[in-house]
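User: quick one, fold this
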Amino acid sequence: MFQLRQVKEFTEQVVSVVAQCVYNPTEEKMNGIIQLYKSDANRVLYAYDDGSRIAAIIGLLIKPEEIVILHIAVDQGMRGKGFGRALLDEVMSLYELTTLKTETDKDAVGFYRTCGFRIESLGELYPGVERFLCTKLRLDSIQCTEVISSE
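Assistant:
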């Protein structure tokens, strides 16, 4: 049975899954990313694992006013089984979040949209690359106001 746990040991398997969501994951780049998770108390990495293999990971930046997704990846052989959506739901529940945000590229927008995120184009932040802000609001945090007009 897979369960969420905080990553304390950055094994080869952990790095391998993280690398699946990193553009051009060179050894130097991956070392830098892992070092940031090790040295910055505001960065935390979680994994879904069953004790022997990791199905998915999610990396977060914990800010006083919000939590931002830095990395999310489902191991290639485990995709399509709901692990990505489950990670998002568990993180929102764990931190009692009303909002969860991330910035991504065109390739991942569909995933976030199917998970209930609102998508907003940020334009071309890098030459030829459109970026998107994805925001998920917990449904019970949205207050609906109905305006009734009598005519």
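User: anything notable?
Assistant: The CA atoms of residues 17 and 136 lie 24 Å apart.
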